[in-house]
Amino acid sequence: MNNFTFYNPVKILFGKGQISAVSQEIPAGARVMMTYGGGSIKKNGVYDQVMEALKGFEVIEFSGIEPNPHYETLMQAVEIAKRQKIDFFLAVGGGSVIDGTKFIVAAMEYEGEDPWNIMAKREPVTKAAPFGAVLTLPATGSEMNSGSVINRVSTKEKLAFGSPFTFPKFSVLDPESTFTLPVRQISNGVVDAFSHVLEQYLTYPVNAPLQDRLAEAVLLTLKEEGPKAVQNPQDYETMANFMWAATMALNGVIRVGVPTDWATHYIAHELTALHGIDHARTLAVVFPALLRYKSETKKEKLLQYGERVWGVNTGTEDERLEATIQATIAFFESLNIKTRLSDYEVGKDTIAIIIQRFEERGVKNLGERADIQVQDVKEILALSL
After folding, report:
1. How does strand 88-93 pair with strand 31-35?
2. Among candidates 353, 357, 382, 204, which has minimal Cα distance to 286?
3. Which of 132, 165, 166 is nearest to 149 (CA)?
4. Average pLDDT, the chain
5. Are residues 320 and 306 in contact, defined by beta-carbon separation less than 8 angstroms?
């Protein structure tokens, strides 16, 4: 097992009725900006619950944060929050709203020339305004980590950042808040969370059996509960299990002491930035192709994954590797998530654009072995056509 430092200060309030506890988690007298998306929280009762919990606080609302949150929109929130002297933020929504709020709180304290440089130039975030979250869409794990991914519409870029200062102070996870989610968003959430685990698990062995089995436990839970969530999104126990599994997929626990990959995410972000394809769907396109392309260097963990998660234990090594990849594809497809670029009417011209972008950025050494170069990205994307 590799050396590691683990830090996660997020307080989780899980279960029915926990939104009411928000008032006890926000400092008395705080001026609060509540951030949210397109307004679905006003239809499912979450908005009313949050506003009831915020009685006694001065609250400014900022709505309209998009899926794959836009830098341009978030900077409007920063301007309003500074003008209104906001000192606490509450993100109410899914991963995009929470990611967007992480950028807002970092930009609130940013003292450089251009806040976009937090992503574009990897300028470190050394302080941020405090915030909490009320999760309404299990998927990204953003409610219990410090990472964020932001889109800049004007340049069609999608870039990430993270900092120890952008963990939520607390997050509320009430499964009932997910009961009115569209099936598409639930399917996306399952695939997103599943992919997060694969990025941290399908690398190479370092004798970390606990992390392996924790990762496999999350994968098996998503495999079992994900389809049930799609079929019956108002079943409390199912949604509770799905919600907690999605959080555990990316709260840092399963990555400690092991190598991680993240090349799939890096590549897939470009497909969302260029074509607006749902994040989870871009992952479902890139992952099978990358696993095929890197099957030799990932062989040991791929065979382990196949046996322990999908019951693939007969045939030659090559047959088992292919059966494991096929099982993964079949799972994604069973959730009505297509797994080829052609399914999204994306072709070779887009691959050329991505390769040009990566060359201009000097992208190199992706993956757990730092052995995926730009030419490899081209081959991986060609496999996904």
Report:
1. parallel
2. 382
3. 166
4. 97
5. yes
Question: What is the total residue count of the chain?
Answer: 385
* Cα–Cα distance, 86 to 154 (Å, whole number): 27
Distance CA 144, CA 32 (A): 20
Average pLDDT over residues 147-170: 96
Domains detected in the chain:
11-177 (3.40.50.1970), 183-383 (1.20.1090.10)
For the chain, what percentages of helix, strand and coil (3-state, to nearest 5) are there? 50, 10, 35
Amino acid at position 10, single letter? V
Q: Tens of pLDDT along 74-106?
A: 999 999 999 999 999 999 999 999 999 999 999
**Residue whose tokens read 């639930």:** 186
Distance CA 295, CA 223 (A): 22
The position carrying tokens 């126990």 is 237
Question: 348 — phi, psi (to 5°)?
Answer: -65, -30
The predicted model gives 21-48 an average pLDDT of: 95
Burial class (CB in 10 A: 0-12, 13-18, 19+), 90: buried
pLDDT of residue 384: 97
Residue 268 contacts residue 146 (beta carbons within 8 Å): no
